[in-house]
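Example pasted here:
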Amino acid sequence: MKKEFERFAEAGIPHPCCVPGRQRAVRLEQSRLASAGRRRAVSGAVDGMVKLDGGRFLMGTEDEEGFPQDGEGPIREVTLDPFYMDVYPVTNGQFLEFKRKTQYQTDAEKFGWSFVFQGHIPAERYAELVAQRAAGVPWWCQVMGADWQHPEGPDSGVDARENYPVVHVSWNDAAAYCEWAGKRLPTEAEWEYAARGGLEQKLYPWGDELTPDGRHRCNIWQGTFPTYDSAEDGFAAVGPADSFEPNGYGLYTITGNAWEWCADWFDAGYHVTASRANPVGPPAGKAKVMKGGSYLCHRSYCNRYRVAARTSNTTDSSTTNIGFRCVRDAA
């Protein structure tokens, strides 16, 4: 118990026992009402989706490999209603259909630029972009003309990547696509339940070993980040949506490859006193939850391809490693 309190303290998150009873009761009731009144989507087609039974599962982690400051714990029992989830992340081909039918403009298209990983920019162009690197994360470069149809910049394209996950899509873009499709983004709890594939408290969708029998099961970084990726898993960038074997629920590339947006606002401590039935996250915030990690994740700095890991980004942000998949309520 002492160790548990210390982990919460180090992360700056109040332990549930330390929250005054009345305050805890108010938060719980507010969260319960939000969960009960959550947005539902039942009109979208279920082709290409798998029905998940829901029920109870253990969400979160207190594993030593985790990041307590992200609010990965405590481990808590959560209950979900049945729902459908896309077997694959939304692809370039699917997003193109959305674009053609709605003339929707992504945030990157409106801004005229997006963030591209330095390793995917030709050396002669990278020198020109040094002054336009993102503060604190210099491997990200602001590239004019980069968007979902031009992932590495204006000279690139997606004609040969129809079944690759669409990237350079913001949370706003993902939500707009879901609305058009009669679906919605998954809550963080739904995403984690789905990613676990029926396994309880395992690090990855397939178990606790990253490369069982020496086989890679997801697209992440191998080598020395950010200068050398040996691509031992077969990819040095986003790969096809059907890469690797599916998890126990039949979901492909649910971890690694590209981050996936969730519906919830991000808060490191909100769930400590939140509803355990169909939780939907806090009512407001500055950034939205992302889950699953990407091809740029490496244990040395971003061990967030674990199913319980979480991070966030602002709703209008887009990069070469952020995508999404949709869910639909079962009834």
